[in-house]
Amino acid sequence: MAVNLQIPSESEIFPVPGIEIGVAEAGIRKAGRRDLTVFRLAPGTSVAGVFTRNRFRAAPVQVCEAHLAAGKQIAALVINTGNANAGTGADGMQRCNDTCAALARLLDVQADQILPFSTGVILEPLPVDRLVAGLPAAIANLGPNNWFSAAHGIMTTDTQPKIASVRRDIGGKTVTFTGISKGAGMIRPNMATMLGFLATDAGIAPELLKRMAREIADVSFNRITVDGDTSTNDSFIIMASGQSGLRVDSANDAAYAELHQALSAAAAELAQKIVRDAEGATKFMTIRVEEAGTTEEALKVAYAVAHSPLVKTAFYASDPNLGRILAAVGYAGIDDLDTAKLRLWLDDVLVATAGGRNPEYREEDGQRVMKKAEILVRIALGRGSVTDTVYTCDFSHDYVSINADYRS
Amino acid sequence: MAVNLQIPSESEIFPVPGIEIGVAEAGIRKAGRRDLTVFRLAPGTSVAGVFTRNRFRAAPVQVCEAHLAAGKQIAALVINTGNANAGTGADGMQRCNDTCAALARLLDVQADQILPFSTGVILEPLPVDRLVAGLPAAIANLGPNNWFSAAHGIMTTDTQPKIASVRRDIGGKTVTFTGISKGAGMIRPNMATMLGFLATDAGIAPELLKRMAREIADVSFNRITVDGDTSTNDSFIIMASGQSGLRVDSANDAAYAELHQALSAAAAELAQKIVRDAEGATKFMTIRVEEAGTTEEALKVAYAVAHSPLVKTAFYASDPNLGRILAAVGYAGIDDLDTAKLRLWLDDVLVATAGGRNPEYREEDGQRVMKKAEILVRIALGRGSVTDTVYTCDFSHDYVSINADYRS
């Protein structure tokens, strides 16, 4: 069902020196599934994270924030699927801390050198015993070439693993960027997505990496939406091992811009792959708002269109019932919007202008674009010079089936 | 498919002295359908309206506002289905004005004594010739007993007519309240709903009625949502003919409170009937937020829950996957929400408390409530003393089918 989602072959995935991964079957929710993943990071690796703004932040999100704030060398990440450990109160915090302590003992580090991540059902106790019992198998599996296995290991309702991997020559060094992500529903990241892990062997000063992680999230994971439901567990992590020999300590360094661009491109690819594999998706839609006065109003309009169930079902049906897009723009919350200045295009087809239908617009032109699997919806507001873009998908019977059946 | 939607028999519908209705088949979109309705109002009838805040307000909404502002005696309403005359620019305004002029000629009044309403597809030209050609038949049909027919005449994807009718003794007079509404999708009224018309033979001073209409919309049509899509055509109209002999000129009058309450109850019934007959609905859900600090934050939380596709599909499946409700509360936009103070009930079952699952909660208790057709979701925020309530429905395969097929 995924829309033009490229899955690299194992030989196209570049390992990242300094990063090892181990995956195991811990039977957390169901038997016979890879549901437990451990990342081990070489000493000297910088780590920065961006996390959900949902007020019901999951226990692992709270623990991640605390451990990153403590400022020690992060030694490992532990990720389980099958249970989100969210909406679980003080008991959930305890189970999360127990997980970190168990992995720390096995790796001979401190508990606050571990970052924990959970994804799955909310409001149910984490089966910490089964998780901890699975850790030795994950550790035994540690190696540099397990990215493909890890991409499977973090899936829930995803139908395909999501991996981005590229090598670039920057500052005279060959630098690797490899990452994985997951998520298919409850996707409207607010600071990060369900789970995204991006590693590089560039060296990046911790404070700089922290700022870069926020900026990169804002052009990648913070620009996608499936259903408008911001998860309790969104986490996006960048790891920089430094083992390529490239080192960037400040935004003034020569290699900074190129490094930022390479990380942003890899993050955008991981984020868009989530939309391509969204629950029930049959279309990949780019909503580009131009001529906005501010980023905030561009995003208000883009998200109103991207979240409208009526717009999303029309795209599913390939039906150019495009008045629904105007209605969504109209209720997006820009009180002084001058509808006479607005123009709407589907790809290159000008649909609406001067507050109404373009006189030259023909239904068959709209129909031609609607039938495609990838569609650009372009909305010019006539208010300023800001452009911003959100990526989303259509709304199909399968979304309802998947979410009516999930968990049951 | 409608959820516990009561349809009164013809004998249970009380005509409103001073109000006549005529319905015709004008073939506006499809042949053989009642799609044109005219209300004729006796001289002395006060009329007030509340209209959509969508920036793409339809031509008839703009004309209604202008005609009400002009302050002349409103003589008639004309309502067509099959075409919304929205997103139609200057040409749409012309066609709307032509409609008013044609009806005014036939009734021997001025064009600005007519209020026009349209509902149906957006972004397509109103077939004004067919509409005008149908007016004589609608006028010939004028009579006090056509409420049932009018309720059918304003339907689009509605499966059932929506009518509320009651007689009350107020201030020593027998006063009648009868109204109709329509709408099943693109429902998240912001000031009013798709179409609601409520008539009484109480007499109400025009300025007072105007204020009452806004207040009444805020406890009825402005508290329902189906899909979060605020329509371009939402209109709610109250007509007060005065023919019962009861007259209210100020909020200090003895009968005011009782009259307000009766109108509010009738409007709430009409609004809730829209949710009961919402596209694909199988459940009617009341989202009540208690202990909020302000009305605004109560509504933020209520609408976040009511619009979450994940919450709505879980209710469709009768699956007590209730962490989805916590996630929606968490992203509702209350930045300083203390999740430890929040409590969540399904009917009388306490599901969550102290930031996590109630230790006494048993899955079978949640399951029992989820299987019902009418469910109360009660959320206490622990922040203040404001309560507010929103009415909504679940999200089913049929919603997708109806909106993927509508228009095609």
Automatic annotation (TrEMBL), chains A, B:
Keywords: Acyltransferase, Amino-acid biosynthesis, Arginine biosynthesis, Autocatalytic cleavage, Cytoplasm, Multifunctional enzyme, Transferase
The keyword Amino-acid biosynthesis is assigned to this record: yes
GO molecular-function terms, A-Z: L-glutamate N-acetyltransferase activity; L-glutamate N-acetyltransferase activity, acting on acetyl-L-ornithine as donor
Chief location of this protein within or outside the cell: cytoplasm
Pfam families (UniProt xref): ArgJ
Protein's pathway: Amino-acid biosynthesis; L-arginine biosynthesis; L-ornithine and N-acetyl-L-glutamate from L-glutamate and N(2)-acetyl-L-ornithine (cyclic): step 1/1; Amino-acid biosynthesis; L-arginine biosynthesis; N(2)-acetyl-L-ornithine from L-glutamate: step 1/4
Residue numbers marked as site, Involved in the stabilization of negative charge on the oxyanion by the formation of the oxyanion hole: T119, G120
EC assignment: 2.3.1.35, 2.3.1.1
GO biological process, one term: L-arginine biosynthetic process
HAMAP family reported in the protein's UniProt record: ArgJ
Family: Belongs to the ArgJ family.
PANTHER family, per the entry: ARGININE BIOSYNTHESIS BIFUNCTIONAL PROTEIN ARGJ, ARGININE BIOSYNTHESIS BIFUNCTIONAL PROTEIN ARGJ, MITOCHONDRIAL
Name of the featured protein: Arginine biosynthesis bifunctional protein ArgJ
Originating species: Bordetella genomosp. 10
